[in-house]
Amino acid sequence: MRITRTRGGAAASTESCAPGRGDGPPATKAELDRLYRKIAFRLLPFLFVAYIVNSIDRVNISFAKLRMMDDLGLSTATYGLGASLFFVGYVLFEVPSNLYMQRIGARATVMRIMILWGLITVATGFVTAPTQLYILRFLLGAAEAGFFPCIILYLTYWFPAARRGRITSMFVLAVPAAGILSGPLATWIMNTFDGAHGLHGWQVLFVYEGIPAALLGVLAWFLLPDGPADAKWLTPRERDVTASELVTENTARHAGEPAGSVLRRLLTDRRVYIAGFVFFAMYAGFSVFSYWTPTILEGLGVTDLTTIGTLSTLPAAGAVIGMIVNGRSSDRRLERRFHVAVPLVVAGFCFAALPLTQTSVLWSMALLTVAAMMCFGTLPVFWTVPPSYLSAATAAGGIALISSIGGVAAFVTPNVIGQITTATGNLYDALLVIAALLMVAAVVMVKGIPVTVLKEHRSAAPSEL
Question: Which segments carry the region annotation Disordered (predicted)?
């Protein structure tokens, strides 16, 4: 078999071959398990840490706000616009960034993204006027654009579809991990280093949390091969087995794919927009935990900031459990659609039931924790779906477009919830809208994505990582 590699690192071949077959005998299941465990241990620790840093740098402005508004004389409206401009840059540049990745490779893309976002984060610590804040937040979004879809695409270069549920879950666990770490870390830096280097605490926060991103960007060049063919830590046999597994999977999935413009096929594929809508709804659910959990607790009569901060970590802990359990269950059963749809329905019911628990902190936190477990539990499974039906040519743009559609929710949802709450005087009315959106997305997921495009071979199911 003749194996080559595209510039982006994806395996390609002029011949098909049996799964696990290279120049030697077919790989056994035990051999495949050892191989993919080796790859995971080489790649995932770095990607996990990088995504934690990414998530922390994205939201640290919410903690800096507690001091920088007074120091700079900024209004709440100025802060709100500056914070939201991040998502404008992010959405505009996400698709181009991921398409460019296919030309220059994954490690160069990750290096570029991390170094730029690290330097821009550091620069944010030295803003003195609203216009500077607006520009830097927009540039931060543009710099970070493509990081998440880049990694999702990158994982398809290494792992077959049957293993991606648990692999993706291990990567996206960085989101709740960052949620647990970001608050205590930010307040500790601001309190401990206030006045250090002649800077305010919020300035030190941006500097200290921006530098690690830039350093990790440099490390990415040395730690992230573009694909299995470039991994010197794989033996020739392991490289061949990895490539042949993916070649066989891609050949089977995209046999008879029509020719034509990649952009045209991408923009006319209704499944891209179906997946985009589902991800938009998921992102809307995520935003409840990012922006409104403290408000819900305050409405329940919890006024102590330390108590609010402590209770707010419970949904994040639930999210960790949900990602691990749902990702493993999905891989074990080789089923994707209902592992997204059912948790979305349960999360919707939890949000809808919250008005019934307005007098109980215990029951409210229980519902929020279950909702987080369900809502975030869909994340790793959902991102195994688009690569299953997108071709090698449209995967980069398709994944980025779906991610961009979801990113719009990060800009829209907080504003919509705020407007509904202001108009009705009741936050729970807005949560009912989120609940309905999640349930509609569950139906769209099942009805809009045919099970035939997601069929995976049970022989490929992993017995372990």
Answer: 1-25
Residues of the chain with CATH 1.20.1250.20: 28-252, 261-456
CATH class of 261-456: mainly alpha
Alpha-carbon distance of 247 to 1, in angstroms, equals 11
Cα 293 from Cα 315, distance rounded (Å): 9
Model pLDDT for residues 357-412, shown as the tens digit of each residue: 988 999 999 999 999 999 999 988 898 888 777 776 677 778 888 888 887 887 77
Determine how many CB atoms are found less than 10 A away from the CB of residue 409.
Answer: 22
Check residue 462 and give its pLDDT: 56
pLDDT in tens, 79-118: 767 777 888 888 888 888 877 887 888 889 999 999 999 9
Contact yes or no for 265/258 (Cβ under 8 A): yes
What's the topology of domain 28-252?
Growth Hormone; Chain: A; (1.20.1250)
Distance CA 346, CA 352 (A): 10
Helix (H) or strand (E) holding 4, with range, is strand 3-5
Q: What is the pTM of this model?
A: 0.74
Based on C-alpha coordinates, what's the Rg of the chain? 22
